[in-house]
Design goal:
The protein is mainly beta. It has one domain: 2,3-Dihydroxybiphenyl 1,2-Dioxygenase, domain 1. Helices cover 14% and strands 37% of the residues. It has 2 helices and 10 strands. A hairpin with a 6-residue loop joins strand 8 and strand 9.
Length: 147
């Protein structure tokens, strides 16, 4: 529901969800991986596309990889040990906006993803979403909710 101030409110049981209605695809998540090539391949199956790949110092490692989501946004991927960072493999939780979470879930299941949260139509905010775990333990939520 759009209010006079231009904000959109969704009914919730305890408190309304307030959103500006403006999509923000310009924040790029960074994921560190013990097996970045395997994780890259896993994400490509889910629907990401590779924009840039810079091999790492040692064979089979990734210094920097940029993976784009076709509906907007980007994930940066690197192998652990390639750069100084407090990030640790398997500790990320990412929200990816998609118009078709059902297709993403099918793709995730085809590569053996662990289902953390099955496909569901949310009742307290307008979203159809699911959460899967990648081979390193990161959680990826694919949702129609864009804020």
């Amino acid at each position: 529901m759009s209010e006079p101030d231009g904000h959109v409110y969704a009914p919730m049981s305890a408190m309304p969800v307030r959103t500006s209605g403006i999509r923000q695809p310009s924040i790029w998540a960074s994921v560190v991986s013990d097996d970045a090539l395997k994780l890259r391949d896993w994400l490509l199956v889910l629907g990401f596309t590779e924009d840039l790949m810079i091999p790492g110092e040692t064979g089979g490692s990734v210094h920097h990889c940029q993976l784009d989501w076709p509906e907007g946004g980007r994930v940066l991927l690197s192998s652990s040990g390639e750069r100084s960072t407090p990030c640790r493999p398997g500790t990320s939780s990412l929200h990816v906006v998609t118009s078709d979470p059902d297709t993403v879930m099918k793709r995730a299941l085809s590569v053996g993803a662990t289902v953390v949260h099955p496909l569901v139509d949310q009742t307290d905010y307008p979203s159809r979403d699911c959460t899967v775990e990648d081979p390193e333990g990161n959680h990826w939520t694919f949702a129609t909710f864009a804020g």
